[in-house]
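Postdoc handover notes: sequence design on the structure in folder B. Input tokens:
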């Protein structure tokens, strides 16, 4: 090394400092914001609910351990400054294995293909480190080469490892939505829970269950349920009998808040709600939320005549519901246009005009696929679209 030339020393400091900051920021953000809920679910399942995972503390500890691993690797290897980023490879690989979790692994823990991929990659890494450590020194290390000569290979390598770690995930977006909504519900943030994945057309029965609960807690179930994409499978707002070993917030938690735990002989949401509505409902502490669950379930099942009769009976029989439904929730008014009956008195002129626009647009397309797509763009957040196109 030419000690009269300060450029390589300064370059070494810039390389190590900037790459360390990049690694720490990415790892912490990835663990805390993107994979935190997944790790919390895994901790809950694997410990059978005995221990819990704290997203912030967990992200800090794991990031620190992975950075310590890089520090050890750097001590054991002597790679040229140009390839210093490669010392982060074992840490990125370990991070990838740690966060590659899916429902199959939660059902039956296994490292899967990582049992052979991880050791093979580590052996290849060791061979590469041995080769680089024994290379003839790059002349550029002892000359006035620009800093960019050293930086661009490191940044390019670091970017590739970040992209690889972030792209290898065992779960899809919907599962992440489910876990995020579940976490927010457990934290009592129902407003944010109802917004999770709201802009995505992808959904699932579990996500619908969590959204419905969050909307119900905000008193918006009858207004906003059908503004979200709804899965055509199941059509249940409460997944009776769903796995209680994977979920931190279960269907029994919902049932308990609606008035009573679900009995073992009840296997469907409709069956549970029928039993609850057959009891002395009007003396129930949460009559309005229970009524919304019952009425929205009827709408999901497209039982418009039963919905209309039930709603009228509730309005006449219950002072609290009459006060609440002085103006019907949006989905109920949209359904009322289809059901007619006595509910026609509660339909406003603006709603009638919008339904006329829906019918005109629906009748203007002969092609079924085009009709469905165009109607989704303008009326996909209405009960009318759900009634016509969700099987």
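Designed sequence:
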């Amino acid at each position: 090394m030419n000690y009269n030339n300060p450029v390589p020393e300064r370059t070494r400091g810039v390389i190590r400092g900037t790459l360390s900051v990049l690694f720490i920021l990415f790892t912490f953000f990835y663990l805390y914001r993107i994979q935190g809920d997944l790790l919390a679910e895994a901790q809950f399942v694997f410990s059978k609910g005995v221990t819990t995972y704290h997203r912030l503390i967990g992200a800090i500890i794991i990031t620190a351990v992975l950075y310590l691993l890089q520090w050890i690797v750097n001590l054991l290897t002597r790679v040229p400054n140009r390839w210093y980023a490669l010392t982060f490879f074992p840490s990125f690989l370990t991070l990838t294995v740690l966060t590659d979790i899916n429902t199959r692994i939660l059902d039956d823990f296994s490292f899967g293909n990582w049992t052979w991929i991880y050791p093979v990659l580590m052996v290849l890494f060791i061979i590469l480190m041995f080769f680089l450590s024994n290379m003839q020194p790059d002349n550029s290390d002892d000359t006035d080469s620009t800093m960019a000569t050293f930086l661009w290979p490191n940044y390019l390598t670091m970017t590739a490892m970040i992209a690889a770690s972030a792209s290898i995930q065992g779960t899809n977006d919907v599962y992440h939505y489910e876990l995020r909504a579940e976490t927010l519900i457990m934290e009592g943030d129902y407003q944010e829970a109802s917004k999770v994945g709201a802009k995505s057309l992808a959904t699932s029965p579990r996500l619908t269950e969590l959204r419905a609960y969050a909307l119900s807690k905000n008193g918006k179930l009858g207004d906003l349920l059908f503004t979200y994409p709804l899965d055509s499978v199941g059509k249940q707002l409460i997944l009776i009998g769903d796995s209680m070993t994977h979920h931190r917030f279960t269907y029994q938690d919902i049932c308990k808040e609606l008035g009573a735990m679900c009995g073992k002989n009840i296997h469907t949401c409709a069956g549970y709600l029928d039993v609850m509505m057959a009891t002395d409902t009007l003396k129930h502490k949460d009559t309005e939320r229970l009524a919304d669950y019952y009425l929205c379930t009827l709408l999901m099942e497209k039982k418009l005549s039963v919905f209309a009769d039930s709603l009228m009976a509730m309005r006449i029989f219950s002072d609290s519901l009459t006060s609440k439904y002085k103006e019907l929730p949006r989905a109920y008014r949209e359904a009322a246009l289809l059901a007619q009956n006595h509910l026609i008195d509660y339909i406003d002129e603006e709603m009638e005009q919008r339904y006329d626009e829906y019918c005109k647009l629906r009748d203007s397309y002969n092609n079924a696929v085009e009709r469905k797509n165009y109607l989704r763009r303008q009326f996909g957040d209405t009960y009318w679209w759900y009634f016509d196109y969700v099987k």
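Context for whoever picks this up: Residues 124 and 130 are 10 Å apart (CA to CA). Don't rerun without checking with the PI first.
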